[in-house]
């Protein structure tokens, strides 16, 4: 398939996905649940709420830096470059991946997302075996896995993650993917506006506040998931808490699948729309 035809097909898929995202298809139960969560969040004192949101922001930044500077991440980066070099011998650094076609980039990103979905499935299953330590580690581990998935997808599309602009973009993307589904379209449009207004810059010049009261809904849902796991871990089948393990594995897999799909569409859109402006013109050297 001609490259331009393939790119137009992907943009059409993203447009269709956007249109679906605009529709508020929540059931009456989901709407009631969302209103209940909103009321409970509103009851939290403003000072306490502000402190919680600042801690969430700080944890995102710290975890992002930790992942980015880890030996595992550096090894994964080299693996991406080796895989890309097998497709084009002129690739020596992450920015050079823009020389590949969108289908090749999608292939590289799909390899990474498949791995992280499997990691998330296994991690959720282990959480389902019970234990205070495993349960308490679930949210931090899920955050690390999902942030890392976004970083890997970013690099697969040729965006180096080790500068302030790309770091903030990936964190805003992660935050948008965690929002309740009926609020994600607005966050998606804001992400698109950011890259449409983007100038070639090392530093991020926009709003650096990530978490907001709606972010807390994700945390409450995770706590609810862990509560359900705690209830079902007592139901043993052949001495194994299979029900709680499947709940943990299924929930974490679906979460990582959603986040990686959201990130993949964003970087596809960004690559295609910026291709003629930046890449062909040599700005991303």
UniProtKB/TrEMBL annotation:
PANTHER family: PROTEIN ECSC. It comes from Metabacillus litoralis. It comes from the Bacteria. This is EcsC family protein. Pfam families: EcsC.
């Amino acid at each position: 398939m001609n490259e331009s035809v393939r790119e137009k097909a992907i943009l059409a898929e993203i447009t269709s996905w956007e249109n679906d995202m605009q529709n508020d298809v929540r059931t009456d139960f989901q709407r009631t649940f969302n209103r209940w969560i909103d009321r409970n969040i509103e009851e939290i004192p403003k000072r306490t709420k502000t402190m919680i949101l600042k801690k969430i922001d700080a944890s995102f930044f710290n975890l992002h830096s930790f992942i980015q500077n880890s030996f595992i991440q550096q090894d994964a980066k080299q693996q991406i470059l080796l895989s890309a070099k097998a497709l084009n011998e002129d690739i020596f650094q992450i920015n050079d991946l823009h020389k590949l076609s969108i289908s090749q980039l999608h292939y590289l990103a799909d390899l990474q997302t498949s791995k992280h979905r499997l990691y998330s499935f296994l991690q959720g299953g282990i959480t389902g075996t019970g234990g205070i330590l495993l349960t308490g580690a679930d949210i931090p581990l899920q955050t690390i896995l999902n942030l890392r998935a976004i970083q890997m997808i970013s690099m697969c599309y040729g965006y180096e993650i080790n500068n302030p602009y790309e770091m903030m973009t990936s964190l805003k993307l992660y935050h948008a993917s965690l929002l309740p589904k009926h609020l994600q379209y607005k966050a998606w449009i804001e992400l698109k506006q950011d890259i449409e207004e983007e100038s070639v810059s090392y530093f991020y010049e926009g709003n650096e506040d990530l978490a907001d009261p709606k972010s807390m809904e994700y945390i409450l849902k995770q706590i609810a998931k862990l509560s359900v796991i705690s209830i079902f871990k007592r139901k043993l089948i052949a001495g194994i808490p299979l029900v709680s393990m499947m709940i943990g594995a299924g929930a974490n897999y679906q979460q990582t699948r959603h986040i990686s799909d959201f990130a993949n569409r964003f970087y596809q859109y960004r690559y295609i729309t910026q291709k003629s402006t930046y890449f062909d013109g040599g700005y991303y050297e």
